[in-house]
Specification:
By secondary structure, this protein is of the alpha+beta class. It folds into four domains: 199 residues, Serine Threonine Protein Phosphatase 5, Tetratricopeptide repeat (Alpha Horseshoe), CATH 1.25.40.340; 79 residues, Alpha-Beta Plaits (2-Layer Sandwich), CATH 3.30.70; 114 residues, Rossmann fold (3-Layer(aba) Sandwich), CATH 3.40.50.510; 103 residues, Hypothetical Protein Tm841, Chain: A,domain 3 (2-Layer Sandwich). It is built from 19 helices and 18 strands. It is globular.
């Protein structure tokens, strides 16, 4: 079957099929991780990201307009993006969406141009694009599409040829990236992109690929407690648009940042809105910027649920709706952290809003955005504390209009803590940014973890369960026991004799063992100030800060 054009319905089907392909192969993508360190799971991140868009089209009617489908997919992908691979995927679709804006259908030339625009958007968001990654694979596919689109009118044939180019580029990734070459694998993100194109092709060829459900759900109200309802108020209304040309997508983005179950249907003259939130006043205030409101309905779902429980004898009283604290501050902070002790350190330093995450637990842009919205300050500093989370955090900057969001490039917990230690509330935002960046650059970070699988690193065989010492997130030693690994890590980090060494021990380390490591370190560096702090972090036995 030939496709001279692609409609919104067809593009929605392509997205759903791609999500099914990635979900089906996500474990294989995870196995392509290069380092034996427990890293951000590429397959899981990509699957969760694209499912955010696929769920829209698998569970609800699809608009026939290509621009609507592409726009909704891009918006969902961006807010569901997890890890670098997920963010880059969302940018590929976001660039396509902008290129397809205003089009009910697309020809082969227009679809090829959209693929190119997606690649440009992804490259533009990466400070130092590396070859041998998903960027290379997607660029080669787009280049092939642009090369043949003048003579190839069939979009299915065009995508098949683009997929061949992507496969060829993927096969070459080990020759472009020495890390991949050492591990003997292709790039995981690039392989994921090839699965996306496989989904496109399968959908257009009429193949049925089952979309795996992301979670089981139940509608029985007695299966959960009233307090499990995260957002209390169901709010519905119509907006009579004052400006027919004004897009409702920013309104959707705002509502998704403060609630869930968001439905925003823009029908030129009116907009139908449905959202669950904890502050219907904020919902209505934002909606008023689009026009007058009518048919307003607000229901307290916690009260409704409790009433049902009372009817069945499962509850006796109605809890009061939670009051929302309103803050007016100059500065606020959002930090990513994992571990009870680490979280407590950040709280003590003034961080009010924490996002749980780190290695193997990459929070999404939506997760970080939700915490930013809870901070009622004119300037909000965001500490990602992990290189694989930084790109997702940076996507929030353009999504927040009423406050300044500053994402600091903290790639480790010690860097985040050092940044907070130099913060001065009486200084200006720019003065604090300069001081915090200087502090980030001055601290050195080390960590001790374990090998998740057998591998080879710089000619050395690594066995599953080996203890790994990392300096600045790079493997510097392989050891058979933790004390030796700590010693090697400190040698590589360059502690010096008069420095300040802070050791955070994880949830799997006994306090006595941690004290022994502290004593060992103090004996090696008698003139250094060595402190021991319970971090409670998973994955890592120790996180070490050296100043």
């Amino acid at each position: 079957m030939e496709y001279k054009t692609i409609s919104g319905v067809e593009f929605a089907g392509m997205i759903v099929a791609s999500a099914a392909m990635i979900e089906k192969n996500k474990n294989g993508l995870n196995e392509l991780n290069v380092f034996p360190v427990p890293d951000g799971d590429t397959g899981t991140n990509m699957a969760m990201t694209i499912m955010a868009a696929a769920d829209l089209f698998a569970a609800a009617p699809v608009e026939t307009s290509l621009t609507d489908v592409a726009g909704k997919a891009a918006s969902a992908l961006l807010r569901g993006a997890r890890g670098n691979s997920g963010v880059i995927m969302s940018l590929l679709f976001r660039g396509m969406s902008k290129s397809l804006k205003g089009k009910k259908e697309a020809t082969s030339k227009e679809f090829a141009a959209a693929m190119k625009a997606g690649v440009e958007a992804a490259y533009g968001a990466v400070m130092k694009p590396a070859e041998g990654t998903v960027l290379t694979v997607s660029r080669k596919a787009a280049e092939k599409a642009m090369e043949i689109c003048d003579t190839e009118e069939d979009i299915l044939a065009l995508i098949i040829e683009a997929k061949k180019a992507a496969d060829e580029a993927l096969a070459l990734t080990p020759t472009q990236n020495p890390v991949l070459a050492k591990a003997g694998v292709v790039d995981a993100g690039g392989q994921g992109y090839c699965y996306i194109l496989d989904g496109f092709i399968a959908s257009l060829q009429g193949e049925k690929i089952e979309l795996v459900a992301t979670a089981e759900t139940t509608s029985a109200f007695e299966m959960f407690d009233t307090e499990d309802i995260q957002f209390a108020y169901c709010t519905e209304f119509l907006i009579n648009k004052a400006d027919a040309e004004k897009s409702a997508l920013p309104l959707r983005a705002y509502l998704e940042s403060i609630g869930d179950c968001v439905v925003v249907v823009d029908d030129e003259e009116i907009v139908k809105v449905h959202v669950h939130s904890n502050n219907p006043g904020k919902v209505l205030e934002e909606a008023l910027t689009y026009g007058s409101l009518s048919k307003i309905k607000i229901e307290n779902m916690k009260e409704q649920h409790t009433e049902k429980l009372v009817e069945t004898g499962m509850a006796e009283e109605t809890p009061a709706a939670p009051a929302e604290e309103v803050l007016t501050e100059d500065f606020g902070f959002v930090s990513v952290a994992a571990g009870e002790g680490i979280a407590e350190v950040f709280r003590d330093l003034g961080v009010s809003n924490l996002v749980e995450g780190g290695q193997t637990m990459n929070p999404s842009t939506a997760d970080i955005l939700a915490e930013i919205e809870k901070v009622h300050a004119r300037t909000v500093f965001v500490l990602p504390n992990n290189k694989n989370i930084e790109l997702a955090a940076r996507q929030t900057v353009s999504l927040v209009e009423n406050k300044r969001v500053v994402v600091l490039g903290t790639h480790s917990i010690p860097q985040g803590i050092s940044a907070m230690l130099v913060f001065e509330p009486t200084a200006s935002a720019d003065e604090n940014i300069e001081a915090m960046k200087e502090a980030i650059g001055a601290v050195r970070s080390g960590s001790i973890t374990y090998a998740a699988r057998n591998s080879v690193f710089e000619g050395n065989e690594i066995l599953e369960g080996d203890i790994l010492a990392l300096s600045e997130n790079k493997v510097c030693a392989i050891a058979k026991n933790i004390p030796d690994a700590v010693d090697s890590m400190l040698n590589a980090t360059g502690s010096g004799e008069n420095g300040i060494i802070t050791i955070f021990y994880g949830e799997d380390v006994a306090e006595a063992d941690a004290e022994a490591v502290q004593a060992q370190t103090q004996a090696k560096y008698p003139d250094a100030e060595v402190s021991l702090v319970y971090g409670g972090q998973p994955i890592y036995y120790y996180l070490v800060s050296v100043e």
